[in-house]
Amino acid sequence: MKCRVCKCHVVIELRQHNSAFCAEHFLAFCRRQVERAVDKFDMFRPDDKILVAVSGGKDSLALWDMLVELGYDADGLVIGLGIGEYSEASTEFARTFARDRGLTLHEYSLDAEHGFTVPSAAQATKRVPCSSCGLSKRHIFDSVATSGGYDVIVTGHNLDDEAAVLFGNVSRWQREYLARQSPVLPAANGFPRKAKPLVRLGEREMAAYCVLSNIEYVVEECPMAAGNKHLEYKGLLNDMEVASPGAKHAFYFGFLDRAADLFASAQDETSGSAEDVLSPCSVCGSPSSNDICSFCKLVSLAAVPVEVEITARPDMIDK
Ligand code: Q46
Ligand code: ZN
Ligand code: ZN
Question: Which of 193, 226, 275, 300 could cross-link with 187 by S-S, CB 3.0 to 4.6 Å?
Answer without folding.
Answer: 193
